[in-house]
TrEMBL record:
<dbReference type="GO" id="GO:0002098">
    <property type="term" value="P:tRNA wobble uridine modification"/>
</dbReference>
<feature type="repeat" description="WD">
    <location>
        <begin position="678"/>
        <end position="719"/>
    </location>
</feature>
<dbReference type="InterPro" id="IPR001680">
    <property type="entry name" value="WD40_rpt"/>
</dbReference>
<keyword id="KW-0819">tRNA processing</keyword>
<feature type="repeat" description="WD">
    <location>
        <begin position="53"/>
        <end position="89"/>
    </location>
</feature>
<dbReference type="GO" id="GO:0005737">
    <property type="term" value="C:cytoplasm"/>
</dbReference>
<protein>
    <recommendedName>
        <fullName>Elongator complex protein 2</fullName>
    </recommendedName>
</protein>
<comment type="pathway">
    <text>tRNA modification; 5-methoxycarbonylmethyl-2-thiouridine-tRNA biosynthesis.</text>
</comment>
<keyword id="KW-0677">Repeat</keyword>
<dbReference type="InterPro" id="IPR015943">
    <property type="entry name" value="WD40/YVTN_repeat-like_dom_sf"/>
</dbReference>
<keyword id="KW-0853">WD repeat</keyword>
<feature type="repeat" description="WD">
    <location>
        <begin position="634"/>
        <end position="666"/>
    </location>
</feature>
<keyword id="KW-0539">Nucleus</keyword>
<dbReference type="GO" id="GO:0033588">
    <property type="term" value="C:elongator holoenzyme complex"/>
</dbReference>
<dbReference type="GO" id="GO:0005634">
    <property type="term" value="C:nucleus"/>
</dbReference>
<keyword id="KW-0963">Cytoplasm</keyword>
<comment type="similarity">
    <text>Belongs to the WD repeat ELP2 family.</text>
</comment>
């Protein structure tokens, strides 16, 4: 039976403090566009994202795992920009499925919290799920085997909840809820669990001077610690206060406005504030400490996890924070403030210090961190960056003192932060290039090495050849070490591989790309420029460093070292550019499509067009980078040309267009001339492709069909191309690619659809008019939004499998292996 498996998924994290969470066993779940990506961050193989979970109809904005102490959690919740919350449960086979869908919010989900409700022995687990919406409301749900029940709606009076945290109160089964929102106070709610859950407001904690992001980090750059404790074990209803509830609340808020007292002993104290929970006694909240170390908004806080080898041991008293200042800080209290008999809390308001600072300070394009997640056993830390890539630091295994230990960066996960518009394999299929609307091209290649006597191959991003000033639309390799790109500008840019990449490809992937010494060392982008300039050697790089006393300016702009591992995010941002060698002009509007001939030194380009005047194809000589002498622009289309494809023997050039026509141009002598055309689709034709041996071509259209076109014989004239098959689908066909199943001598056609699915069909060599379904790649293996580009690898594998690369509007790049 034919099968398909995921080899590589490049995906970036959404830009939100709450859009990622992590389990104690190393599993990270993070929002990436419309799906949830799963990544075993503690995997020593550095295999990256291993699965994605479809289901959301908007960008995932919040995620939370159910926190458990004795075993890894089997539940997490995710919320999206459409206002929908999904509860995910892990099945026995390790797969995650949706067990409940919670609706009711009218705007984006901004915060989530989940807690396991106390149950009697032998009773099934009930979960309490709280969701905060941008409309300024919190919904409380009980989720059980019987279904989901909405318990309560809490109106926040127009304030947007940005983060929520729930916990059981000390020595109690009652629940306390802390809500940080778009105000300077932290709102504290509480409820008992003996009867119907009903959260009531208990306190408002003052102190921050800007929006609170997490209890309790804020946009005022401060972190505040708050201590909750039980004052009494009284379980009956206390006497009614002499003041009304609102008056008592106002009195507490006025008291909390009072400044902190300086005791003269190096301690900051504040009066404790108490509240009564009907049926469960009195509790107290007091300020523990104020931490200042970040220079910008605090975007994430997490306490250190409990040790995995001893789940009953208390968690170490360590706090990890992330900030928009491009740093993470590991905080610990002074030893004198900690009770030796307990590591769960200081004995008094204490002074906390910055024990370790992590960051990527030499990268001007890294605009901050989100998340601040702990790794396995607290020996690694993780955060996502402004561009969606992950940053990981790990403590060396032999180190026991985490505060004074040596931490080192680790290979992590990266991906495009906007729609992927084009993917293409290099001519021999050893590595893949992708272009996206995030103004970058990214080069994906295998990391081949031997580990414990076994050969291991994992795929990673090995370079960002172009970090552009415009959203990219199309790319094409002209050789193994050169490509051209078109973007939302009128220029085609040409890039050549530098020595650093050629050396890295040889060392990491085992791929020989020819002479290294004649190439420039690397490239960088000059200030206020868009063209990558070549850097010949280290001496030239040193001359480019600005004359400044600022220590950050003294760092070299490029790292020339060829490491034994894939580059980290900081290196990808500035040290993997390719020199730009040429610019091609001629088009009047944004570039949309381009393609390179296979054997001839020719590239074809087309731009956006609203009239036939600009809907032309221009041909350039890739040896001289000038228009081909005597070759006039190819006319015929009336609107934007959406794709260009040369046949394998370069005899034909196929173009498809928004005007619902395809056109063929045939090479006669030294020029291409119009040869055939047809208006056979009812809607836009998005893409076209050629068979491996040019026996047919296919066109994919918004009219939900793919049509296969053939010639009756090899000697037939160009005008005799006719439709041999019409393949119908449930969604618009947006991308198409063809290959051959070598062991079966059959054609295979991959069709990407508007809903993200990929359909695979086969046909015998002798009958390209007869197509049968082969495989369907659904949203769990393929994409969740429009498939924009497909390309089969030309590399032949001994076991006969095919390798398919795909790009999508869902921002992911995927490599899928297909076994016949």
């Amino acid at each position: 039976m034919p099968s398909a498996s995921s080899t590589y998924i490049a995906a970036s994290a959404n830009r939100a403090p709450t859009s990622a969470c992590r389990l104690s066993d190393g599993l990270v779940a993070f929002g990436s566009g419309h799906f949830v990506a799963l990544w075993h961050s503690s995997d020593e193989r550095s295999a990256g994202v291993h699965a994605t979970l479809p289901g959301h109809q908007g960008d995932v904005t919040a995620l939370k795992f159910l926190q458990t102490h004795l075993q890894p959690s089997r539940y997490f919740v995710s919320g999206d920009s459409a206002g929908v919350v999904r509860l995910w449960e892990e099945q026995q086979d390790g797969q995650w499925t949706t067990s409940a869908v919670l609706t009711g919010h009218t705007q984006s989900i901004s915060a989530l919290a989940i807690l396991e409700l106390p149950q009697g022995q032998g009773q099934q687990t009930d979960l309490l799920v709280l969701s905060g919406g941008s409309e300024g409301a919190i919904q409380a749900w009980r989720v059980s085997a019987a279904g989901a029940e909405l318990l309560q709606k809490i109106d926040l009076k127009g304030k947007i909840p940005l983060e929520m945290a729930m916990s059981l109160l000390p020595d109690s089964s009652s629940i306390v809820l802390a809500v940080g929102s778009t105000e300077t106070r932290i709102q504290i709610f509480s409820t008992t669990t003996t009867d119907k859950i009903d959260f009531t407001k208990a306190l408002s904690l003052e102190g921050h001077s800007d929006w609170v992001l997490l209890a309790s980090g804020s946009q005022d750059n401060y972190i505040r610690l708050w201590r909750f404790s039980r004052l009494s074990h009284q379980t009956t209803a206390p006497p009614t206060p002499t003041t009304t509830g609102l008056e008592a609340l106002d009195e507490l808020e006025r008291a909390l406005d009072a400044p902190l007292e300086d005791t003269g002993a190096g301690e900051l104290r504040v009066k404790a504030h108490d509240w009564r929970l009907v049926g469960d006694g009195e509790f107290s909240c007091s300020a523990e400490a104020v931490l200042l170390g970040h220079d910008a908004w605090v975007t994430g806080l997490h306490w250190a996890p409990r040790p995995m080898d001893d789940p009953n041991a208390p968690a170490p008293l360590q706090l990890l924070s992330a900030s928009a200042d491009r740093s993470m800080i590991l905080w610990t209290p002074e030893e004198s403030a900690v009770d030796p008999s307990s590591s769960t809390a200081p004995t008094k308001a204490s002074i906390w210090t910055s024990a370790r600072r992590f960051g990527e300070f030499s990268s001007a394009t890294n605009l901050g961190f989100f998340g601040a997640l702990w790794g396995t056993m607290g020996r690694s830390v993780l955060a996502s960056g402004w561009g969606g890539s992950w940053h990981v630091w790990r403590c060396k295994e032999e180190e026991e003192d985490l505060e004074n230990a040596e931490w080192e960066p680790v290979v992590a996960v990266a991906g495009h932060f906007a729609a992927v518009k084009s993917v293409q394999w290099e001519p021999e299929g050893e590595y893949l290039l992708s272009a996206g609307s995030d103004m970058s091209t990214r080069l994906h290649a295998p990391w081949r090495r031997s580990t414990d006597g076994q050969d291991l191959e994992t795929w990673h991003e090995l370079g960002r050849p172009q970090i552009h000033g415009y959203p990219l639309a199309s790319i094409a390799f002209t050789s193994r070490v050169q490509f051209v790109s078109g973007a939302d500008e009128k220029i085609v840019r040409v890039f050549d591989a530098p020595k650093v990449f050629v050396s890295s490809a040889r060392k990491l992937s085992g791929v020989e790309l020819g002479d290294e010494e004649s190439r420039p060392m690397a490239a960088d982008v000059p200030p206020l420029g868009l063209s990558n300039r070549a850097i010949a050697n280290t001496a030239e790089a040193e001359q480019l460093v600005p004359d400044s006393k600022d220590p950050f300016d003294q760092l070299l702009p490029v790292n020339f070292t060829v490491e034994s591992h894939p580059p980290f995010e900081e290196q990808l941002l500035g040290s993997t550019l390719w020199p730009e060698t040429e610019k091609l002009y001629g088009h009047g509007f944004e570039l949309i499509a381009l393609h390179s001939a296979h054997a001839l030194p020719i590239i074809a380009t087309a731009c956006k067009a609203t009239s036939s005047e600009h809907a032309v194809i221009r041909l350039f000589d890739s040896n001289t980078w000038k228009p081909i002498p005597g070759q006039q622009p190819l006319e015929g289309h009336a609107l934007t040309i959406t794709s260009l494809k040369f046949s394998r023997d370069d005899r034909w050039l196929l173009s498809t267009s928004r005007d619902r026509t395809w056109r063929l141009f045939e090479r006669r002598g030294d020029a291409y001339v119009p040869a055939a055309s047809a208006k056979s689709h009812a809607r836009i034709i998005w893409d076209g492709c050629w068979a491996a041996e040019d026996s047919f071509f296919a066109t994919a259209s918004r009219d939900k069909t793919v049509k296969v076109w053939t010639l009756p014989s090899a000697s037939a004239s160009a005008a005799e191309w006719s439709c041999a098959a019409t393949l119908k689908f449930e969604e618009a066909a947006t991308a198409v690619a063809a290959a051959v199943l070598p062991k079966q001598s059959t054609h295979i056609l991959a069709v990407g659809l508007e809903n993200g699915m990929i359909r695979l069909l086969t046909a015998p060599f002798a009958e390209p008019s007869t197509w049968t379904p082969f495989l369907t790649l659904d949203a769990s293996l393929a994409h969740v939004l429009t498939v924009t580009s497909l390309d089969f690898s030309p590399k032949a594998f001994p076991d006969g499998r095919l390798r398919l690369a795909s790009g999508s509007d869902d921002r992911s790049v995927r490599i899928i292996d297909i076994a016949p």
